Fold this protein.
Amino acid sequence: MADILIEGGTIITMDPNRTIIFDGAVAIEKGRILDVGKKEELNSKYSADYSIDASKKIILPGLFDGHAHAGHTLLRTLGEHNGTWWKACETIYSQASTEEFWEVDSQLLNLERLKFGTTCGITYLGGGDSIMRVDDPIYGEAHCKAAEKVGVREFLAVGPRRPPYPSRYSSWFKDSRRDYMVTFEEQLGVCRKLVESRKGSSSDRVNIALMFPVPHPEKHHYSQVEIDDLRIQSQLVRDVSRENSLLFTMDGHTRGTIKFCHEELRLLGSDALFSHATELA
């Protein structure tokens, strides 16, 4: 017995042999793939509550989005005509966004992913120049709950925003605004709370990843004190990822930055994924 039988399509298996199955079928039970094979074979093995006719269509594993930003779906090209998009990100993400903003953005982002065949992705909780919404766990939790409702698999990347610290944030309740400054340690504490919250979730579809802003020695001449601070802060974030066996990711590498992160900060590893890397040669 299967819940769903997708049948009659051409299956691109993506197995080690890159097998293609013509007139194939996929049996699904409780949201997971139960069996893959020829339509005739699976029809003889399973009856299904619901059948999907995939004739003249391709059946393939869901695509993976290796780099997305929560918030960007609602902002898109806001301010690009006059070069103010970065400033808009900084202001909206840290001072002018509510819990509902991150929830709606997550719904739209992940529905668009599904529309284009993407079933899993990495999403940074913010963006622009590494403006992460990590002053309170409610924003990350709102994003995760919305992603779960859509049904995708996702890694939500959280970590401290780009220094200097403390960082300015604002929260809104109805028409009341509260401004405050948040230290590096407090931002990391929010990340830890999100990790623990996900551990207690009944769903394993949405997980937390840890991130750290990419240092840019090619643009900034860091003093030894600044490098020492980066070492301490980046290792504290990296420790959280390693202690919890979580993915570690960085966004925005360019020429010389991977070398710096390896030799100076010791951030590389088999559990690390660096995205949006340009001009590496």
Q: What stands out?
A: The chain has two domains: 2-59, 63-275. The radius of gyration is 22 Å. The chain has a mean pLDDT of 93. The first strand starts at residue 2 and ends at 12.
